[in-house]
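Run log // design_07
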């Protein structure tokens, strides 16, 4: 059975054939580290983590590269405005690299909570200034770039294939349609490869054109080629990066004579309650805020319920349903592990037949462009058969086969059951219900001004690994290690 991927470049599902047999190179655009990660970051990270896990399951050796942008991403797309990290540094009264490091580590803490595997290589833009300057010099030499007052721009009109990924024709991109036009550009559609640093700009490096800093797009071109080579296999990222970021990456690489990515993958947006996430409207939630309310693996489960190319609408009702669904699977897995410890030898024909069907349906779904909703559905189709079997006597051979499937598919591929959630402890809806009851009784004690009892309940919960925070909207709790 072949593995098919939807290639944004061709707009078709294609059988996946790596450049080098048995080896896969993947580059995924990572975050600009100037603020905490949000659900959009989570969807992209979980989608491409699942791709990586499935390729590993199929037996490929995978090199997974995901960058961190720590310079050059300006506040608009016209090569104007402040660098996002420098702007945040002014707000927090920190050095720009302090901001970049602070949110770098917070991002990867959030990804670890979601059970996203660490990249094999995490290149940072500031660590590859030399390579970005060299590519800029090559584009100047070939006539695809020009220098103006210490800045260097790519000539979009010079590259006839610009727009082939997004389907946007250069002629349709009216001057100033997206943003204001810089007068020093030959064409408003040109973009910066290198920017001169104004006197107040803190992040600056020497270059043949004077002190400055790299443009946003060029970092991914040089880092993907450096670590994955010519004509690497897969380039991924959010659909919002398709234009102009990925279009610019392609033009820069190919104009300089480099074969670039062979397959392009893009995950779709996340909505909050049917509306686009936006800080300006308050329709926005960081992962850290969300993790205070719910187990992070429930968030991963929620995201896997929709296809990576579909819009995911995140709602409180959907989150509650995801919590129930996730803990149904987790509790069944835990029960299998518990029963296996004392099970007698033997099999279970009905369970083994259902397990074979689970594996077949799961593989069919994942081989069809990572069909995670159908892969999860295969688990829930299997669950009633498993529960019937567990109501009676099940041999150790059958239970071991079920445990292996949960480990290989549920954790190995979908990333849903890391060791920490398999620990034998109360969890899920039962735990939440009990804690809510305890906190209601504690609130009654506070209303009676029995603060000694309220404090004793809080302290005892802390000893048990449950932190309680009293807020204006009532008490909140979370599990702590």
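design_07 sequence
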């Amino acid at each position: 059975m072949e593995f098919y991927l939807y290639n944004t470049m061709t707009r078709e599902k294609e059988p996946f054939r790596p450049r080098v047999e048995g080896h896969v190179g993947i580059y995924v655009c990572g975050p600009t580290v100037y603020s905490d990660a949000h659900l959009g970051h989570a969807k992209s990270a979980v989608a491409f983590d699942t791709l990586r896990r499935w390729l590993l399951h199929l037996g490929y050796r995978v090199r997974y590269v995901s960058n961190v942008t720590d310079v050059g991403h300006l506040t608009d797309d016209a090569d104007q405005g402040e660098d996002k990290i420098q702007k945040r540094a002014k707000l927090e009264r920190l050095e720009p690299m302090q901001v970049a490091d602070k949110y770098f580590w917070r991002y990867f803490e959030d990804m670890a909570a979601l059970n996203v595997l660490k990249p094999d290589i995490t290149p940072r833009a500031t660590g590859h200034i030399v390579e970005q300057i060299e590519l800029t010099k090559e584009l100047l030499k070939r006539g695809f770039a020009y220098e103006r007052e210490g800045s260097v721009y790519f000539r979009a009109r010079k590259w006839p294939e610009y727009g082939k990924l997004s389907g946007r024709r250069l002629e349709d991109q009216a001057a100033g349609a997206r943003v204001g036009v810089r007068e020093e550009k030959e064409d408003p559609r040109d973009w910066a490869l290198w920017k001169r640093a104004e006197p107040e700009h803190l992040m600056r490096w020497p270059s043949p054109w004077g002190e400055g800093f790299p443009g946003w797009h060029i970092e991914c071109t040089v880092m993907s080629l450096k670590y994955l080579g010519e004509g690497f296999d897969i380039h991924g990222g959010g659909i919002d990066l398709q234009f102009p970021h990925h279009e610019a990456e392609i033009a820069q690489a190919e104009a300089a004579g480099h074969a670039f990515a062979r397959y392009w993958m893009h995950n779709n947006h996340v909505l909050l309650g049917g509306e686009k996430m936006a800080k300006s409207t308050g329709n926005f939630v960081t992962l850290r805020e969300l993790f205070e309310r719910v187990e992070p693996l429930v968030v991963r489960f929620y995201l896997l319920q929709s296809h990576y190319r579909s819009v995911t609408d995140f709602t409180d009702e959907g989150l509650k349903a995801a919590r129930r669904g996730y803990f149904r699977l987790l509790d069944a897995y835990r029960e299998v592990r518990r029963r296996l410890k004392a099970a007698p030898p033997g099999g279970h024909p009905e369970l083994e037949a259902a397990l074979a069907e689970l594996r077949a349906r799961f593989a069919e779904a994942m081989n069809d462009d990572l069909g995670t909703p159908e892969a999860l559905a295969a688990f829930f189709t299997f669950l009633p058969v498993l529960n019937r079997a567990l109501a009676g006597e099940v041999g150790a051979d059958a239970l071991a086969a079920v445990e292996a499937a949960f480990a290989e598919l549920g954790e190995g591929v979908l990333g849903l059951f890391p060791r920490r959630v398999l620990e034998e402890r109360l969890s899920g809806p039962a735990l939440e219900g009990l804690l809510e009851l305890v906190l209601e009784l504690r609130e009654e004690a506070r209303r009676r001004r029995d603060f000694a009892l309220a404090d004793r309940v809080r302290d005892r919960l802390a000893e048990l690994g449950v932190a309680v925070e009293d807020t204006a909207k009532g008490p909140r709790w979370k599990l702590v290690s």
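Confidence is low (pLDDT under 50) at residues 175-180.
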